[in-house]
Design goal:
The complex is a heterodimer of chains A (226) and B (126).
Chain A (H helix, E strand, L loop, with lengths): L40 H15 L5 H28 L1 H9 L1 H7 L8 E6 L4 E6 L8 H4 L9 H6 L4 H7 L9 E6 L4 E6 L11 H5 L4 H5 L8
Parallel strand pairs in A: 1-4, 2-3
Chain B lengths: L27 H15 L5 H9 L10 H15 L5 H15 L8 H16 L1
Helix pairs in contact in B: 1-3, 2-3
Classes of the chains: A alpha/beta (226), B mainly alpha (126).
Amino acid sequence: MTNPTHDYYARSHHDHDHAHDHDDHQHPNPANEHDNGPPGEYEIMSRAMQELLEQKGIITAEQVARRMEQFDEEFPHRGAQIVARAWVDPAYKQRLLDDGRAACAEAGVMLEAERLIAVENTPEVHNVIVCTLCSCYPRSLLGMPPTWYKSRNYRSRVVFEPRAVLREFGTVLPDSVTVRVHDSNADMRYLVVPMRPAGTEGWSEERLAGLISRDMLVGVTAPKAP
Amino acid sequence: MNDSEKLPSDIGGEHAGPVDTHDHGMRHWERQANAFRSVVQMTKLTCTDELRRAAEELGSRYKDMHYFEITTSAMRAVLLEKGAFTEPELQAKMAEIRARFDVPDEMESPVKKAAAKNAAVKAVAK
């Protein structure tokens, strides 16, 4: 029997004893739906594969449990921290734009993919990210992609009618702004660097990070002036 | 390349309906499946491209499957190809897990206890 400490069915409750500085924007892990029914065939298959690989000494239950924690607690906040740092430190921003992977490593974040391309929004250009073929996404910076990022409708449409898709997110861009859509792949991920809102002069990195949501770093929304 | 030759995953540029911009989160088993994939990739047993190739080989089944059903099927195919386990081993383990879930007494089933606890906590939270 699997050690219950690492049993993924024995779901821990988030007691919110960890710092929640970002309650004013979307929670990266919204309440999950339909958790309590009997397991489906794919759930049983996934668990069976994990247990077989544990028995063969290829992986451990602790590794999987640790990875789940990281996806829930650590990864979702890193992108905002990196961008806030870029907002206050122009030299860091330039390094991020020059070589995203190296700039993340400098901040202690090791990425899964070979390359990270940071794309900067300006008054003239707005950037949006997609992975049309699957769901490549800078997970170690943003956590798990939201449901819509993996959806057929987003993947199909954002590449040819990005303005219409952005409107569905409540983002309306003037015709004068060029919209660039970036299609990710297994070796190359993107991160949008939004424009720092006016009225945030002198703010700390931590306070600025509180303005930045996942959706802004994918490019479907933009930060607003406080 | 015409549409009939396209891979099932190659959907960029197709017409489709409005985007549901609400994030529905992930079911608990999906979080396990995701973490499991990540850990397996860390062992270098497989990689993203290989898993996507296996997903694409689902062919016409692809469009009717949910995201984590696709990724779990792909993982199964790749791990069988690599000889990480055999199909009979997988079937036996799945039967064992099904039986574990079907334990009638809730006191003996960690699965049902966890589910009951979740339901109770949710009820209190409301």
